[in-house]
Amino acid sequence: MPEPAPLTDAVTGAVGDERGPTAAALAVVRRGAGPPTVVTAGWTGREGPAPRPVEPGTRFDLASVSKIVTTLAVMRLRAAGALDLDAPVRSLLPVFAGGAKDAVTVRALLLHRAGLWEWWPLYAPAEDGDGVLGDPAAAVARAAALPLRYSPDSGRHYSDLGFQLLGAIVTRVCGMDLRTAVADLVTGPLGLRATAYGPLTDPDVAVTSRGDAWERRMIATGEPYPVPVRSVPAGRDHWLRGEAGDGNAHHAFAGAAGHAGIFAPAAETARLGEVMFGGHPGWPPEVVAEFAAPGPDAEQALGWRRTEVTTPDGGTVTVLGHPGFTGTELSVAPALGLSWALLTNRLHPTSTPVDVSAARARATRLVLTTCSTGPESGTTGGFCPDVGV
């Protein structure tokens, strides 16, 4: 049997362990090179709904990669002059006010420096009130009412709540619900027809965890966040396919939130990163540059994470991107004209997150080795356009 092509080898290596994941897809977009290259491996699931081979069109629960969709929407509003990043959040969301909150800006939310709790199960009853089910406005109000955990601008504290508030800001500025706003601002202009919030009924979707198993553990143990909640009456106990694994996105926000809830195939996920190449009419170069620049924390730009990655020739390149808890990741190297997405379902079938960092690192290394071409990259890899499964 011939050796598999390099990118296919990276994807097949990400599946097969009985602990999971069972599904993987890698897509690479090269500036000016036509449609994305896509390779897939595995099955949509081992437990639950009838398994199907993973295909290029298989959709995955992107989890926190959804934050990039929210960031792209904010970038559009910034470009249109409709949103001032230095405006106080309270001027847009009056429910977020009082004390140190009054000084928190939109920019601080994007930089994860607003002092918010990292996570809070808004759907579960707690000492401060009842849980929220299926009411995005009430969920935002509850998130906004929570006390700050840290002093604003005292450091980077990655927060789901910050992007829940950013999603609400997008809806406030646009005057429409988040599903419609994202379709108008992001997925429509980019031609991403399969990228959408759940729930989905399409059978070609990777299965994730069994209900809310992992979040129930977090709540029961108070780890890693000591929230004063110890029960989840709204919990799910079935295999999730097409429902956001994130409890807040599904229960509190009815599937569409600023921090989670988007489903997409690998090719369309990779195409989200094309915006950061510059040149798209909806995202002008000056806005792209502003959102790509490092903030007070070198690893964090506005909405995008930043990493310095070693290239095959021994140099370094800045990679922008974002991971998702379900085992997904979007990466963009603007200087090389490369955007790639590795999507897995690492919570299946054990409902416990499997470490896929080695698969991510291998995919990045092979993408930079085989797909970087042209004067910006200094290499002439030739596999990428012709990879097949």
From TrEMBL:
It comes from the Bacteria. The keyword rRNA-binding does not apply. The keyword NADP does not apply. Keywords: Hydrolase. Pfam families: Beta-lactamase. GO terms for molecular function: hydrolase activity. The lineage of its organism: Bacteria, Bacillati, Actinomycetota, Actinomycetes, Streptosporangiales. Residues 21-356 form the Beta-lactamase-related domain. This is Serine hydrolase domain-containing protein.
